[in-house]
Design goal:
two-stranded antiparallel sheet; 1 helix; binds zinc ion
C-alpha cells in the first residue's frame, strides 16, 4: 500500500500503522547511533546517511553475488555492499 511519508512527503510502500517510510526510519536510527549496518534489505541503503541507493540498470554487476564498493550519491561516502542472490523455482504441468 502506498502512503505519503509524514517526514519526507514521498509516496512509499508503508504498513498501515507506519507514519514514516522505511528510509526515514533508517535515517533516524543511524542518527541515534542505533545501527551501524543495514542487512538483508531488498534495496540498498547507505549505512552513513540511510539514503536508498538507486541501482543503475547498466551497473548489472550488482545482480551477481559478491561484495562491491559503492559511493553514496547523497553523502559521497564509500561503503561496501554484499549482494546475495536467491533463486526460487516453480514448476507446473503443461
Ligand atoms: Zn520518508
Ligand atoms: Zn550516504
Amino acid at each position: 500500500m502506498a502512503k505519503k511519508c509524514e517526514k519526507c512527503g514521498q509516496e512509499r510502500h508503508m504498513l498501515p500503522w507506519e507514519t514514516e517510510c522505511y528510509s526515514c526510519g533508517i535515517k533516524q536510527q543511524i542518527k541515534d547511533g542505533e545501527i551501524t549496518e543495514i542487512s538483508c534489505e531488498d534495496e540498498i541503503y547507505c549505512p552513513h546517511c540511510g539514503e536508498d541507493y538507486e541501482i543503475d540498470v547498466d551497473n548489472c554487476e550488482l545482480y551477481v553475488e559478491g561484495e562491491y564498493e559503492l559511493v553514496c550519491y547523497e553523502c559521497r561516502k564509500p561503503f561496501s555492499v554484499e549482494v546475495r542472490v536467491s533463486y526460487s523455482y516453480s514448476t507446473y504441468k503443461k
